[in-house]
Amino acid sequence: MAERKQSMRDPLQDPAWLRALLIGSAMLAMVLLVVLPLVMVLASAFGDGFKAWWAALAEPDARAALRLTLFTAAIVIPINAVFGLFAAWALTRFEFRGKRAVLALIDLPFAVSPVVAGLCLVLLFGTGGWFHGWLQAHDIKILFARPGIVLATLFVTFPFVVRELVPLMQQQGADEELAARSLGAGAWTMFRRVTLPNIKWGLLYGVLLCGARAMGEFGAVSVVSGHIRGLTNTLPLHIEILYNEFDGTAAFAAASLLAGLALVTLVLKFWLEARHGDALAQSHRRH
User: Fold this and answer.
1) By CB distance 3.0 to 4.6 Å, which of 190, 255, 256, 282 could disulfide with 45?
2) Is 247 strand, coil or helix?
3) What value, to the nearest 5°, has the Cα angle with vertex 45 and ends 44 and 50?
4) DSSP letter assigned to residue 90
5) Is residue 230 a contact partner of residue 147, using CB atoms and an 8 Å limit?
6) Mean pLDDT taken over the chain
7) How many Å apart are CA 47 and CA 133, to the nearest integer?
8) What is residue 130's three-state secondary structure?
């Protein structure tokens, strides 16, 4: 009987002890690298009580940093959504020379350090940069102002929506769109009634990832912001300044707020995966 059970066992299935070891190792790594730091941040933020936490967040520089973070995300997310949608459409529905080069350029922010991206903006718009003379003549300020922060954040976040939509649209193909065109639907009607409903959850997923990265970006923004308190400091930069000034309570309070925004994004991400996991899983398998 034991020999029969052994013969019926799936030869590709790992032994129970190995599965337990791998699962336990993964859970331990998650606890040490993700859960424990988050718990420590929250404990430090509320260590002096709720009033101290609220007072740190009500401070004018903290409110200005939060407004700038949300302002930047509110600009970056729609731009990336529109760009990602049109780029994914072009890359999956048309064949043209340089298509692979375009895909490589889209992935460039994943390969380039955000600090390098910020330095590139300095070379373009800073003193002695390519556009410095023109900007100065027209009294336009890019660096050490909100436009520079938005541009830096756009650079590091624009691949997220494209990279979420391209595999999904490739997997779905263009059969339904061709059928709609053959029945007389115009380009806009086809896009609105066929293409967009099929990719809407992948688009929302990419937008969530883009928003999370936009709110947490540090390197590129740090280079172009100028670190002007109350004006050009986003939440990550504000946290760094407070921590360097040994104001731990205020630093961890701001960090808990940023972590809370990340948790909201995570909850929305889980909700999307639970509601529409099949489409998203197919998209991820094609990455």
Assistant:
1) 256
2) coil
3) 125
4) H
5) no
6) 83
7) 51
8) coil
The one-letter code for the residue type at 221 is V
Contacts of 233 (CB under 8 A, 6+ apart): 61, 64, 65, 68, 225, 227, 241
**Angstrom distance (rounded) from CA 198 to CA 279:** 9
Q: Which two tokens stand for residue 268?
A: 């929305």
pLDDT < 50 stretches in the chain: 1-2, 5, 7, 283, 285-287
pTM for the whole structure: 0.81
The model's pLDDT over 17-76, given as tens digits with 9 standing for 90+, comes to 888 888 899 999 988 888 888 888 888 888 888 888 998 889 999 999 999 999 999 999
Which tokens hold the place of 48?
Answer: 């002096």
Report the C-alpha gap between 266 and 216 in whole angstroms: 13
Q: Which of 246, 244, 241, 247 is nearest to 227 (CA)?
A: 241
Give the model confidence (pLDDT) of 239-255 as tens digits: 999 989 888 888 999 99
- Vertex 89 angle, CA 278 and 95, to 5°: 115
